[in-house]
Amino acid sequence: MSEANTPDAAALRKRLYWHSRRGMWELDLLLIPFLEHCYDQLGADDQAAYRALIEGEDQDLFAWLMQREEPEPPFRRIVALIQEHAENADNDPRRPV
User: Fold this and answer.
1) Alpha helices for the chain (secondary structure H)
2) Is 0.90 surpassed by the pTM of this model?
3) CA-CA distances (angstroms) from residue 50 to 2, 29, 61, 86, 96?
């Protein structure tokens, strides 16, 4: 069984999914597709940064992801990766825009 298919990995994925669901729909539209399409391909440092990011406050995440404020240094790279994924028109064929 591969590491991605272990019970611990499945539990982590479910936790990440539910923590990626936020109180703001705009954040859901950015975080959940990034989790589904990119998280598994990230390096360990970027995965850790994503896990730390989603522990943050919605208003901080919104300001950073909408480029209204500069992200705190530990989150700059992961925020940039999420923004890059969101700006890629080919990232999801079901994308409404």
Assistant:
1) 7-20, 25-38, 44-53, 58-65, 76-87
2) no
3) 22, 15, 11, 15, 25
